[in-house]
Amino acid sequence: MKCLAIACFLACLGTTTSARDVMKMAVTTSFHNSGLAEVLLPEIAKDLDIEVQLLVVGTGQAIRLGQSGDVDAILVHARAAEDAFVAQGFGTHRRDIMYNDFVIVGPTDDPARVRNATSASAALNVIAGAQVAFVSRGDDSGTHKKELALWRSAGLDPAGFGVWYKAVGAGMGAALNTTSGLNAYTLADRASWLNFRNKGDLVSLFAGDPDLFNQYGYLPVNPARHNHVRHDLAIQVESWLTSQTAAELINGYKIDGKNLFTFNASP
Amino acid sequence: MSGLFPMTMVQAQTSWRGKVLVGPIDATLEGQGATVIIGPNGSGKTTLLRLMHGTARLTGGEINWACGLEQARHHQGFVFQRPVMLRRSVLDNIAYPLLIRGMAKSRAHAMAADWADRIGLGDALDRPATVLSGGEQQKLAIARALITGPQVLFLDEPTASLDGQAKREIEQILLQERAKGTRLLMSTHDLGQARRLADDVMFLLHGRIHERGNASAFLGRPETHQARAFLKGDIVT
Question: What CATH class does A9-99+215-263 carry?
Fold first, then answer.
């Protein structure tokens, strides 16, 4: 499938005056779309006098920016790829920062009876059994990788699915719009779902299974690979992101009164 | 005429911890020309641009693009006040948006070289972008935003802190783009720049559009005393 255009921009957020040091960090679009960066970055600038410049791209591209030494650290959510990043020497280590979760959304009348499912795998099994329309991101994003992992856990392979499985090769907003238009099911990250304003007949039908948790990891780029990276700044920012200050800001961040992220960094 | 426009904002606002940062905003933007947002420091110029672009979260009201938000996002570019340079050459920086869209490297580099020529960096293709001057970096950022052919370009104080020569060169690029049909939405604190570039002006005060009008009318005969005071150079709070 041909991938649609990939959103990308290079942003300098949260500072109006020049801070002394500048660090570059690649983050995923889902993290940036949540709005949390706008809360954290000004506090980092205030506390550490470090301006964190964001490169907002997809998970795969964020990892490639780290591999090429374009950034000093990455904040992504694709555990297998993160472990490989460290194992191959591109990152010095990996640290849990926080998690949010995915939800399965679908039509209010819920023809597949996803509401009654006891696990995420069971929810996908009933969708596949009913062969009701399911929209997949199909774009190799972190969310798409998660969906494929969930199908595997359910013992199913989307390659064998019929026309009811629709891979759109697009971002979360576009996928949700298609889902709304078709009155279908899809897997969405909670922040995108809460921000989505064209819900139509869609509701959140299933959430809470630990399999749906979406862990964000922070990985400093290895200075042994790229001696120009600001590893010192990356470590300072890591200390801040795992601090009590960050915990309070992350846990206190809400959209429509609902928490988006749970801080879980170890001290 | 662009497929993105008209773009309408209906009671659009963004707030944080109960404080409204910008809004409510009611405005319609058509698909041609340059709209320049002016106003005192802290009036919400940057936030309004980011709200329209979709990188600040809408907490109330609506922003509707004629083609829908997702389509609109694929046809927008944003140039920040302080551009972020990748640790790569000038050529690779300009080519980057094309490469991550899957364009073949040879074609992307050819287009990037053409853009480098247009912004006066044709002799600096292999130089690290991080060592360019502030004006050169800003021109590179504009080329990088324009290389994908966006229908609308957002610019947040693109020439703040640049010298007169760099400012003139960047304005020239923007005028050429406007003439080619790229819709420009930009903030500036430079009233001279607003006079040179704007087709219409939004005067922002306390996060709201206090006055809006055709550039020559607004800049010549503003209707409100706050706008008159601002144009005179008085401190407006």
Answer: alpha beta
